[in-house]
From TrEMBL:
It is found in: Membrane. Its main location: membrane. It is a multi-pass membrane protein. Residues 71-215 form the RCK N-terminal domain. Residues 397-446 are annotated as: Disordered. Keywords: Ion channel, Ion transport, Membrane, Potassium, Potassium channel, Potassium transport, Transmembrane, Transmembrane helix, Transport. It comes from the Eukaryota. One of its GO terms (cellular component) is postsynaptic membrane. This is Potassium calcium-activated channel subfamily M alpha 1. Residues 397-419 have a biased composition (Low complexity). PROSITE patterns: RCK_N (PS51201). One of its GO terms (molecular function) is large conductance calcium-activated potassium channel activity.
């Protein structure tokens, strides 16, 4: 028997038990009290688990969904019927229920689609917590408004009917129509008084409620969205060329390669061909699969404290604000790694960040692995890998820092770790900058 960091008694051979607040959602009140108050992991410890639920227990009517006032959730628009081939929604849900998320961080998943189709998929998903179903169609604006799609953290559009159409240009018609339908919707700003607090990828110990301790407290609360264009959407496509129909303001040539188009760069389109590319890359480098698994589920180790997770750091304010206005990515990389045990690997930048006129566009694109001298702007978000428990990671870093300082004092030699963490770049020794840059370049090559 072991005691984990939260003071919970656990067993090496059984799932861990933790006590959490019940999820108060109409339609789910019939779930056993055990399921509401005691949360578990599956036998592998890799995913959150709950006792099997009947599908009737998770079905929401339109009025119940509207009364719930969902926010910060994931809406999955699925096209399919009783004759459609199963696409395996379990594989979609599993990464969202990975145990490298704390239970309170799990985003509620709401499926909007045919009940006949979802009933066939449910047998593989009935052990996942915080999942609901709204029978309807993704093309119905009433259904979309009922699940508060304007307050969701992400809307995913999938189709199980794509293989039933012979004409390749029409295979993605349902997904494209649903995407364009959502983008053309208008919403009442009165819901903005709710100020839904969307945590996004923000990890524990780094939420916005603790600005003095959180490197990511600069991420703003989710504001009310008045137009569907600002709703974060990911649309699945079978035919790469159909990406041209997703963005009405995109001037890309129809013959442009998928990876050069705006929807792909902004993360609003996911094509099946991307999986083919990953399979090819895995054939030549077997470490690719390990990297993908780390990014998606935090890795394969059952030791939660040693697992990592993806986070987003805001440069608008907080500990990294001094680097957000003209600082170098390499300096940010070194500071995040030494101070917070975080490994930065990309930038999430506004599309119109250098526009001379104020822009209402919220679209962002990804810059993967920038060079050391790459200049940062205050509106940037940084993708990084961090430890499962940020506070534990900081404690280990402090312990390592203290040990190093004690050793340096015994040798009567100066240590760079003795410098204040808030020291300006101008006050740092040039030799240290050169060493950090050399170290960054070496890690980049690895």
């Amino acid at each position: 028997m072991l005691i984990d960091q939260d003071g919970v008694l656990v067993s090496n051979s059984s799932p861990r038990l933790k006590i959490h607040d019940p999820l108060l959602i109409p339609g789910n009140e019939q779930v056993d009290n055990m399921d509401c108050n005691v949360k578990k992991y599956d036998s592998t410890g890799m995913f959150h688990w709950c006792p099997a639920k009947e599908i009737d227990k998770v079905i929401l009517t339109r009025s119940e969904a509207a009364m719930t006032v969902l926010s910060g959730h994931v809406v999955v628009c699925i096209f399919g019927d009783v004759t459609s081939a199963l696409i395996g929604l379990r594989n979609f849900v599993m990464p969202l229920r990975a145990s490298n998320f704390h239970y309170h961080e799990l985003k509620h998943i709401v499926f909007v689609g045919s009940l006949e189709y979802l009933r066939r998929e449910w047998e593989t998903m009935h052990n996942f917590p915080k999942v609901s179903i709204l029978p309807g169609t993704p093309l119905s604006r009433a259904d979309l408004r009922a699940v508060n799609i304007n307050l969701c953290d992400m809307c995913v559009i999938l189709s199980a009917n794509q293989n039933n159409i012979d004409d390749t240009s029409l295979q993605d018609k349902e997904c494209i129509l649903a995407s364009l339908n959502i983008k053309s919707m208008q919403f009442d700003d009165s819901i903005g008084v709710l100020q839904a607090n969307s945590q996004g990828f923000s990890p524990p110990g780094m939420d916005r409620s603790s600005p003095d301790k959180s490197p990511v407290h600069g991420l703003l609360r989710q504001h009310s969205i008045t137009t569907g264009i600002d709703i974060p959407i990911i649309t699945e496509l079978v035919n790469d060329s159909n990406v041209q129909f997703l963005d009405q303001d995109d001037d890309d040539d129809p013959d442009t390669e998928l990876y050069l188009t705006q929807p792909f760069a902004c993360g609003t389109a996911f094509a099946v061909s991307v999986l083919d590319s990953l399979m090819s890359a895995t054939y030549f480098n077997d470490n690719i699969l390990t990297l993908i698994r780390t990014l998606v589920t935090g890795g394969a180790t059952p030791e939660l404290e040693d697992r990592c997770r993806v986070a987003q750091l805001a440069l608008l304010d907080g500990p990294f604000a001094d680097l957000g206005d003209g600082g170098c990515y390499g300096d940010l990389f070194c500071k995040a790694l030494k101070t917070y045990n975080m490994l930065c690997f990309g930038i999430y930048r506004l599309r119109d960040f250098n526009s001379s006129t104020p822009s209402q566009c919220t679209k962002r694109f990804v810059i993967a692995n920038p060079p050391y001298e790459f200049e940062l702007v205050p509106t940037d978000w940084i993708f990084c890998l961090m430890q499962y428990d940020h506070n534990a990671g900081q404690s280990r870093a402090s312990l390592s820092h203290s040990s190093h300082s004690s050793y340096a004092s015994s040798k009567k030699s100066s240590s760079v770790h003795s410098l204040p963490a808030t020291a300006n770049r101008q006050n740092r020794p040039k030799s240290r900058d050169s060493r950090e840059k050399q170290k960054y370049v070496q890690e980049d090559r690895l």
